[in-house]
Design a protein that fits this description.
The chain has 15 helices and two strands. The protein has 299 residues and is an all-alpha fold. Strands 1-2 form a two-stranded antiparallel ribbon. A hairpin with a 2-residue loop joins β1 and β2 (101-102). α1 (3-24) crosses α15 and α8 packs antiparallel against α9. The chain is globular.
């Protein structure tokens, strides 16, 4: 499969995601205006929309119409953006650039940035609980809420960030690094696909298992590639400060394996992701192409 169908699908999903996010965000004219303006600034500020893309791609495999996944796709993206806002704060990674624009605390102020992240987190769960586009039975809505909460909390993304902060300036092993990123980056990527599987009752357990393993592999390969780009790319291309991890003495795959070793690791994870999809036919071609795109991307 060549990359053109994937590129077209990415553009389609990005456009769909932007419209869905716009529709679900509070208007900047509604009080408190500054908070709602900051929410819109950070969410509608570009980005690859990788997590919603995964939700829609999994929906294709499962024959779920995209309109039934707009709510879950927005929910996972709101959680992702909230995490970026908080990660960029001076108390965390202290970054002043995100997606090519000033970070939330630079564009507004620290207090507003914290509240913006808090509000987006709450909005994500409000969507899973009440969004009318989600037609799955109530018990599956509850499972969606539980899955996203676990992926976001101390056993998922937030826990991974805590491990990351504790690891600064320390030498850690490869299993420890992978455990950190399985939580910090991988948990939300796995949730992106899990939300799609929960949108349709009575899915075969092997289908769920294989899609989850695929998500686990690309979650790690995504982080490996991020680490590689932090060394090889530039600030303008990345849209965030290049070399930040190295300057902060953060543990990375290139630091542990060398640049060539990290690239080999990304290739191995890509192959494992493909192996997870062998039970599927052409309906999973977009997921296959997406795994390759992740390790070949330039930003």
């Amino acid at each position: 499969m060549n990359n053109n169908p994937l590129k077209d699908y990415i553009k389609l999903c990005q456009s769909r995601t932007e419209n869905a996010l716009e529709h679900r965000l509070p208007s900047a004219d509604i009080l408190p205006k500054k908070l709602h303006e900051a929410m819109r600034y950070t969410v509608l500020n570009g980005g690859k929309r990788m997590r919603p893309l995964l939700t829609y791609c999994a929906g294709q495999v499962l024959n779920i119409p995209p309109e039934a996944l707009d709510g879950p796709a927005c929910a996972v993206e709101f959680i992702h953006v909230y995490s970026l806002i908080h990660d960029d704060l001076p108390a965390m990674d202290d970054d002043d650039l995100r997606r090519g624009k000033p970070t939330c605390h630079i564009a507004y102020d620290e207090a507003t940035a914290i509240l913006t992240g808090d509000a987006l987190q709450a909005l994500a769960f409000q969507i899973l609980a009440h969004d009318p586009s989600i037609t799955t039975p109530a018990d599956h809505r509850l499972k969606m809420i539980t899955a996203l909460a676990k992926a976001s909390g101390s056993q998922g993304m937030v826990g991974g960030q805590a491990i990351d902060l504790e690891s600064v300036g320390k030498k850690i092993s490869l299993p420890e690094l992978e455990n950190m990123h399985i939580h910090k980056t991988g948990a939300l990527i796995r949730a992106s696909i899990q939300l799609a599987t929960l949108a349709k009752p009575n899915i075969d357990p092997d289908t769920i298992k294989n899609l989850d393993h695929y998500a686990k592999c690309i979650g790690l390969s995504f982080q490996v590639k991020d680490d590689i780009l932090d060394e090889e790319s530039d600030t303008e291309t990345l849209g965030k400060t290049q070399g930040k991890d190295q300057s902060n003495a953060k543990p990375t795959y290139p630091a542990l394996l060398g640049l060539n070793g990290a690239k080999q690791k990304a290739q191995e994870l890509h192959q494992q992701a493909l192996d997870s999809l062998t039970i599927f036919g052409s309906e999973a071609d977009l997921l296959r192409a997406l795994s390759l795109y992740i390790i070949e991307r330039t930003h």
